[in-house]
Amino acid sequence: MELQKIKKYIRIDEVSQEEIDALILRVNSCSWRQTFHIQPISGLLNDPNGFCFYNGEYHLFYQWHPLGPFHGLKYWYHTKSKDLVNWENVGIAIKPDNYFDSHGAYSGSAIEHDGNVFLFYTGNTRDENFKRNPHQCIAVMDATGTITKLEKSVFDKVPAGYTEHFRDPKVWKDGEKFYAVIGAQKTDEIGCVVLLSSSDLLEWNFEGELATHLNHFGYMWECPDYFEIENQGVLIFSPQGLEPEGDSYQNIFQSGYVLGEKLDLQQKEMNHGNFEEIDRGFDFYAPHTMMDPQGRRIMVAWMGLPEVEYPSDINGWAHCLTLPRELSVQNGKLRQKPVQELQSLRKMKAEAADSLTDEKKIYDWISGVTYELVCEFERGDAAEYGIEFRAGDDEKTVIKYDAVQGKVVLDRALSGKEVGGKFGTERKCEFSGEKIKFQLFVDSSSVEIFVNDGEEVFTSRIFPDVKSREIRFFATGGSAAFKAVKWDY
Ligand code: FRU
Which of 1, 181, 186, 236 would bridge with 225, disulfide CB 3.0–4.6 Å? Predict the structure, then answer.
């Protein structure tokens, strides 16, 4: 039987090894397999989970359905790394195999406690009428890497006033107490975040809804994350149900944050500024952060979106995670920088510098499929300037500055196989400055573009032909000068 057609909640141990081998063969034959991003060995990856540093290594888990590129039964898959660059596939971490998580081990987070790591996740279940029932569960990873689930869930009911959409605990410690934010939907179908507390991680109390200034902001908030940085509070979440507004909220679902005063744990309220989207690209969801031993706040997200089909589906796999990014605050906004460890991937270096006037140029020694490219433009009087990359006969992906509109624009209309076309082919945001630096991380089927050292970031999947390797620099309606450095990855 075609794996894609088998029933949604099938477990990996119900499928023969031959079927799994055939699926993996199909996955590995795909020309869009990534080279320096975390991706599933087969099937579908979604949210990053349980990101932490323990026993000298970073541990990063993700939502995984092994048997095909669809949202089937979800496992937690485990990867680890000493340097945030080279990741080892460890294997399945949490299997959805008991009463509390029979229909999926859903998203959650990690915290070290008493020498072990506590993985706090949502067990998803469905009753005979297919009604969803979420249980908040814990699995403990010890120093040998063995992961054992607690026998019972630690928070088993949905409090009155909320629907079955109650999931994705993100845990932290404040003083002697543990807290967790959970993504929720109220019975009037308004999204929000609630707060739980615990003294031992084993028994949890419902504190109530976290009061924000966003009282009617979508129908469900998924994957919340709360942390403090530079003496301020940041609440990240992924709201569903926002309508597009100008250049904002163009994707099917959004991910963003509010920044402000630290969360008042007694009053359960946060005083904050506007909701800001974290990323300006096409494929970014469910960001998840951790604090590492150097005190860095590091974020990883799912480079994909729910309810959108992707061209790699036909090869039996879908999605990858973003590169890890270090967060900081600048001018009241979060700024993201690729972690500096990524520089260890830099191989052959190539450079070019030029001044362009109403022209598009290529430099024979600058092209490729997987690379980092840093390009600084200085505007003369050009109306637009930028870069076409992964370009070939009929294909190109374009990042440019439109000086007339004062916007950075990413255009994937001609990026290869179409993805999410009904949500448009351009993403833009306002940006000012006479100098613009684009730092691109280009993998076989993705690009992450950091603008002026992470003031804005555009993250997107692209599905070009392997032959589309050209990099073209252009200025139209006047002149602009640039300096570019590229490293093969
Ligand atoms: C977000 C999400 C979470 C849920 C998980 C299931 O993408 O829907 O809310 O826990 O994915 O895979």
Answer: 236
How remote is the CA of residue 236 from the centroid of ligand 1, in Å?
15
> Which residue intervals of 352-487 are DSSP H helices?
none
Instruction: Report the run of H or E that residue 27 belongs to, with start and end.
Output: helix 17-28
Query: Percent of the chain having pLDDT more than 90?
Result: 96
Domain ranges of the chain: 3-341, 346-488
Whether 47 lines ligand 1, by a CB cut-off of 6 Å, is yes
State yes or no: pLDDT of 56 exceeds 70.
yes
Strand-pair partners of 181: 170, 195
Q: Could you tell me if the CB of 185 is within 6 A of ligand 1?
A: no
19-24, long-range: CB < 8 A, 24+ apart: 20/66, 20/67, 23/67, 23/68, 23/316
User: Is residue 283 annotated as a catalytic residue, yes or no?
Assistant: no
433: pLDDT confidence band, cut at 50, 70 and 90? confident
- How confident is residue 434, by pLDDT bands cut at 50, 70 and 90? confident
Rounded CA separation 51/63 (Å): 12
Token pair for residue 206?
């419902």
Cα of 474 to ligand 1 centre, how many Å? 41
Architecture, CATH, for domain 346-488? Sandwich (2.60)
Task: Compute the Cα dihedral for 420, 421, 422, 423 and give only its sign.
Answer: positive
- The residue annotated as part of the active site, out of 47, 279, 283, 443, is 47
* Ligand 1 site, residue 46, Cβ cutoff 6 A: yes
How many other CB atoms are found less than 10 A from the CB of residue 216? 9
